[in-house]
Amino acid sequence: MTKNPQKPLKPAAHPLDDLIRTERIPHIWCPGCGIGTVFSSTLKAIKGTGIPYDRFTMVSGIGCSARGAGYVKLDSFHTTHGRAIPFASGIKMANPDLNVIVFSGDGDLFAIGGNHFIHAARRNMDLTVVCVNNLTYGMTGGQVAATTPNRAKTTTTPFGNPDAPFNLPLMASASGASYVARWTILHTRDLTDSINEAMAKKGFSFIEVLSPCPINYGRRNKEKPLDTLKLYQERTIIKNGADPARADIDFDRGVILGKFVDIDRQTCDSMYNSVCRPCSDD
Amino acid sequence: MAFWREPLDTQEIQISKGTVHIIQDRCKGCGYCIEFCPKDILAFSDSFNKKGYHPPLAARPDDCVNCHYCEIICPEFAIYSTEDPDIAATETT
Fold it and tell me: What is the pLDDT of residues A63-86, one digit of tens each?
């Protein structure tokens, strides 16, 4: 006679288990990858706002970090490559009460999706953009990306990257973002507070998070994941309100972290209403 | 290297106490919690989990102060700490 399988004991519950699709965990991210930390910080910040979970939407593009939308137990949307911000803008315009979070990587948001980022920041769409910057194209095998530091070795630049990298906070603030910050995965508490603050902020909020990619970036640059975190500990300095023009990523000189921009501007939604719906009551 | 002076109210401060819970089969053995635990209470265990990694082990569980840093830095949702019920009970009475 066959027996029913023994029901497993109820497994121990992580405090964030109500926000993740536990049946899909363990996730695909490599051992030592920092995306999981950024993801859990984002979830913690969502939890910390106290807003009901059905008022949130997470949108992501393509790439390692973009898998986040598949692991979160919220309404989430895994979109085409580079188009996370346009889809999120559409969601926000259709339903302005939603808190829309874009969780994606540097390749998706700044290489293929660079223009969308600039224009969403220019219009001051009320989005929260969390960009996991691992300095390379991780999912496709570690090719040189727009954010790869000068002289870093990648699969396509075996002698070192000859080009200068993007300075993401400078680009965001120059395009008109209302809130710009940068943290690393080691500064998780600051990161969580920052994401929380950005979600409460009306307008385009951008948070760059430096994160190690041990398999496709670290391995070629002789950096173990713990070495990268040591670098984040020793070679970074927190300067809130610093000039984003000085915030380029050069670990020999030191990397500036902190909140760079926090200004109030009219959002896209309120400007649209004042121009196109001047007679409506609401 | 303790170069700071002892705070004046150090006798009155109640240090919180926590218990570390490790979900063995989610761990991928990156070692972040072990390296960055401010009280150094974790260590790699000798046993393997389902995927063949060495999950952490609370080597000195009594020293946990429930700071939640392991919980917040773990990329795998595999470790968390809860407040020790005994201490919580004595605080309320």
Answer: 999 999 999 999 999 999 999 999
C-alpha to C-alpha distance for B59 and B42, rounded to whole angstroms:
5
Q: What is the mean pLDDT of residues A158-185?
A: 95
A11 touches chain B (CB under 8 A): yes
Q: Is residue A115 part of a domain?
A: yes
Please give the residue range of the domain that contains residue A133.
30-276
Q: What is the pLDDT of residues A225-240, one digit of tens each?
A: 999 999 999 999 999 9
C-beta of residue A201 within 8 angstroms of C-beta of residue A178 = yes
- Residue pair A216/A138 in contact (Cβ under 8 Å)? The answer is yes
| Nearest-CA distance A39 → chain B (Å) | 8
Residue A281 falls inside a structural domain? no
Identify the closest residue of chain A to B74 by CA–CA distance.
A37
Q: Does domain B18-92 have CATH number 3.30.70.20?
A: yes
Q: How confident is the model over B43-63, as pLDDT tens digits?
A: 999 999 999 999 999 999 999
What number of CA atoms fall less than 13 Å from residue B8's CA on the CB side? Answer: 0
- Partner residue opposite B26 with nearest CB, options A25, A33, A188: A25
